[in-house]
């Protein structure tokens, strides 16, 4: 059976650190906590779990801190988490089982990263990240912010999920780091251009976000999933500026990179729905339900492949008088959101129409 070192970087995490450590303390063999300047009770709480607490002077670089954390590990494999991450009971069981069965030739294990949930506990957004890596491979973190772990070799995709459950966070932190890098004259990698654009968009700096998305795409060096995402985000930017033609153009540009993702399918469908071209809208909403990539490392907006296309198909079929099909899709949407008032209203109306 493999041994596992948990490595975490923390700062002022007294509100969440126990929740995280409680969820993994029985699974890992060693806990390494790297503190980057806490002024609250974080270290006092952590001391009840481990004496392996290390200080690291924060230098506005997440990779530097994470690489230092990895250097403290002594076990066969390294698990990394953030303080507001949790393994739910089911995932703890899956992890414990994997620990006893993992092939020692595996160099890195990916896990689902569930980023948000709706009121019905459906995962609304997720991606995959490599969470468990073989220590002897010496894998390194890259990037000052929105850092990534560069892995290679024999890779394994697990069914385990890490759930992100923040109570609060510094919304300005990442943007601040990027703007400091811009002022320093640092040349951005394509990945940095993309994530800086994301931060700009999140902070409603729309025109500057457009500038950096375009810079990113012009490099022709981006990861295909980021290219597709950049097109969708450019569509959102132009939508906010009221520029409908440019919005439509960027939705279509996403199709030039690969098979259309569910989010792009839903966007295309809505364009046709707005023009009352119902058969075309139906086609693309159905494609959204079919074009699901289960193992992608990219961000997944699950609403676009679950309840949302079904709900929109209710609208489409109702408009052309196919009320039984509308009812069927509403029932499928309700499976995901059983208390959604829109769907419950649809159910009442459609039952009357088809005499149920």
Note down, in words, how this protein is organized.
This protein is α/β, with parallel strands linked by helices. The chain folds into two domains: 4-164, Spore Coat Polysaccharide Biosynthesis Protein SpsA, Chain A (Alpha-Beta Complex), CATH 3.90.550; 173-353, Alpha Horseshoe (Serine Threonine Protein Phosphatase 5, Tetratricopeptide repeat). It is built from 14 helices and eleven strands. The chain has helices spanning 17-24, 42-46, 62-71, 89-101, 173-184, 190-202, 206-218, 224-240, 244-253, 262-274, 278-290, 307-319, 323-336, 341-353, and strands spanning 4-10, 30-35, 53-55, 77-80, 85-86, 108-117, 123-134, 140-142, 148-150, 155-164, 300-301. The strands form two sheets. Strands 1, 2, 3, 4, 5, 6, 7, 10 and 11 form a nine-stranded mixed sheet that branches. Helix 2 links the parallel strand 2 and strand 3 (53-55). The radius of gyration is 23 Å and the shape is globular. The relative contact order is 0.08. The model has no long low-confidence stretch (mean pLDDT 95).
């Amino acid at each position: 059976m493999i041994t596992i070192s948990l490595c975490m970087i923390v700062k002022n995490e007294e509100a969440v650190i126990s929740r995280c450590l409680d969820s993994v303390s029985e699974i890992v063999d060693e806990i390494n906590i790297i503190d980057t300047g806490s002024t609250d009770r974080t270290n006092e709480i952590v001391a009840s779990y481990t004496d392996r607490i290390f200080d690291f002077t924060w230098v506005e670089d997440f990779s530097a801190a994470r690489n230092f954390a990895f250097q403290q590990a002594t076990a066969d494999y390294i698990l990394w988490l953030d303080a507001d991450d949790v393994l739910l009971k089911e995932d703890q069981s899956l992890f414990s089982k994997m620990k006893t069965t993992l092939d020692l030739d595996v160099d890195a294990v990916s896990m689902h990263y569930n980023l948000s949930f709706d009121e019905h506990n459906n995962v609304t957004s997720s991606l995959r990240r490599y969470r468990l890596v073989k220590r002897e491979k010496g894998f390194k973190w890259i990037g000052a912010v929105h850092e990534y772990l560069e892995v290679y070799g024999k890779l394994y995709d697990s069914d385990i999920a890490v759930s992100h459950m923040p109570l609060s966070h510094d919304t300005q932190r990442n943007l601040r780091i990027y703007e400091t890098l811009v002022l320093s004259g640092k040349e951005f990698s394509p990945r940095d251009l993309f994530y800086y654009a994301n931060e700009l968009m999140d902070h409603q700096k729309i025109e500057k976000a457009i500038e950096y998305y375009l810079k990113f795409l012009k490099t022709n060096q981006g990861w295909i999933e980021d290219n597709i995402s950049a097109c969708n985000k450019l569509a959102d930017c132009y939508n906010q500026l009221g520029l409908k033609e440019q919005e439509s153009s960027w939705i279509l540009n996403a199709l030039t990179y690969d098979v259309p993702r569910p989010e792009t399918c839903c966007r295309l469908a809505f364009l046709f729905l707005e023009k009352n071209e119902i058969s075309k809208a139906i086609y693309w909403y159905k494609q959204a339900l079919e074009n699901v990539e289960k193992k992608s490392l990219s961000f997944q907006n699950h609403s676009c492949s679950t309840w949302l296309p079904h709900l929109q198909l209710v609208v489409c079929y109702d408009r052309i008088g196919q009320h039984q099909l509308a009812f069927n899709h509403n029932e499928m949407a309700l499976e995901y959101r059983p208390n959604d008032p829109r769907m419950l209203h649809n159910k009442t109306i459609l039952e009357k129409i088809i005499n149920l």
